[in-house]
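User: I want to check something. If I give you two sequences, will you return the structure for each one separately, not as a complex?

Assistant: Yes, each is folded on its own. Here is the first sequence with its structure:
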Amino acid sequence: MKILFLHGLEGAPSNYQQMALLAHGEVTCPLIQYSTTGDIYQDLFTMAQDRKCDVIIGLGVGGLFAFYLSCNMNVPCLIFNPNLPTSNDTIPFPEKRSKRNQYLQVVLGKEDLLVNANDTLLFLENNNQDQFSYSIHLINQAASKLTLSEFRLELNTFFNIVNFKR
């Protein structure tokens, strides 16, 4: 399975994240400068298409991009603490998006100071015109960063569902 992994705003793919992902397939982890000008969305879309990614996984702002990319590419998606409610205010995503019909798993840390879990839940409920299948995992004691065991657990849950549906 080919995986596109998008890191958070001021981060980079960590070694433990890459190792955990490698257990599930071939991983592409671009180093993204989100603050640069240019069409980051289109660059990532082209990269994902060229590499024929089967799933897209993202953290934080990488989760924002993963949400929209996976929808327009019609692939399953796992996102951690994406700030979906403010996405159109901060990043110019395509106005028209394809109908989502692939699985979406959203992981939210209740202690995250930047991403309000309740606002994200409302966004998903209010933007589910397609009635797509998704799962929400709330982690009460987690903030923006998950432990290695939490990260692996979410990956395993996601890939068990995605592989089952194939």
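And separately, the second sequence with its own structure:
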Amino acid sequence: MSAAQRRKGKRAELDAVRAIHEATGWPVARALREGRRADAGDIVGCPDWCVQVKAYATVAESVQRGMAVIDRQQAAAGCRWGVVLVRLVGGRFLAVMHELQWHALVDGEVGPPTRYGDLLVAVADGTTVIMRRPGGRTLAVMTLERWAEIALAVEAAGVGGS
């Protein structure tokens, strides 16, 4: 990884820390790599959440790379829930998580799917998009602010595993 890529990643993580803190009030911070044996996510301080931050050239690449590691990081962190925050141009974030985890946390109706090429897309609870590719994972995609609402409700309800 080049120095420019490391700086871009650090910037995205710091932006995510600010955005999460603003949305939740949690005292979050970047997870520093020194002395850690296992990668347990990029942000610490989110109760029972493993948070991965990605800022690749395209949203698709960020989602793909983030979802490829979130399960392993979630297990390493001992967290019940996992989310990938994808930095968009302009500094906003999308939150992406496994649809099954989203369903465990949100009692949301999912509308009928619409096909876009080989991608099936449905709107759930008016705020979340459920996406599935044949042979691929089904993902729930929402704004960081909507994810923060869910995460705060989970914390308030005591729905956690560790």
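Because they were folded independently, the notes below concern the second chain alone. Residues 6 and 12 are 10 Å apart (CA to CA). Residues 3-94+141-157 form a domain with the Trna Endonuclease; Chain: A, domain 1 fold (CATH 3.40.1350).
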